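Dear colleagues,

As part of the handover before I leave the project, I'm documenting each prediction I ran so the next person doesn't have to rerun anything. This entry is a single chain, and its sequence is reproduced below.
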Amino acid sequence: MVKSVKRILRLLTEERIVDEESLHTFLIEVEWRRSWRAVQWMANQFWKRWKREYLLLLEKRILASATTEMVTALSQPTGWRYCSDGR
């Protein structure tokens, strides 16, 4: 890796005179972009997982609530009367 960095830097700075401060700034910028990409990847993974897990939790809650409501509704008398002759 060091060899490839040196080669690329040599090619980039071939026709320019680069002082130490500029080179240092450049390398910090490169490292910052790498770090930024890693942080972005982690943030994207977090939100993907959060959406998946939170939506699953919501679905379970909604299903449990609907089941409770259905059981409650079915256990209450409806007011219908059945005829003894089957009508």
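Residues 29 and 35 are 10 Å apart (CA to CA). DSSP finds two helices and no strands in the chain.

All the best with the project,
I.
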